[in-house]
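thread: overnight batch results

M.L. [08:02]
morning all. the overnight job finished for the chain we discussed friday. pasting input first so we're all looking at the same thing
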Amino acid sequence: MARSVNKVVLIGNLGDDPELRYTGSGTAVCNMSLATNESYTNSDGEEVQQTEWHDVVAWGRLGEVCNEYLERGSQVYFEGKIETNQWEDQDGNTRYSTEVKALEATFLGEGPDGAVPGGGQPAQGQSPAPSQRRAGGQGGASGGGPPSQSGGDGQPGSDETFEPDDDLPF
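M.L. [08:03]
and the structure it wrote out:
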């Protein structure tokens, strides 16, 4: 039987300040827009810059930490999975949106006011520079215990726990 994998790794810069809100049951939801850039040389020998935009959502304590320490322009590493949502618009048309559900975040660089992001634990098996801190499902982010990945608010996958299989060099 084949095993499937839904894993996303992104490193980019926020295009806007994070937007934090809470569900009716009090679970934090942080929406972010992340830009990733790549460049290549076209057939005419000209360098072409291409930007791709990603909608990233962080739930629970991870969302609160992202909102607290990230701002427009912040460089951040996200690990998570792709989720597609379906709904009907006002005209009854079926609409879809695809987003990255962040399960881990590493803040690359300084946060607002030059503060080093989070008091989070470093990635397993690594000793990051003081300006690189990690927050996510297993390591405690600033403010105590691990981020909540559940809340009984009907959010898909809210009862899942992410556990990395191994230490990857990236």
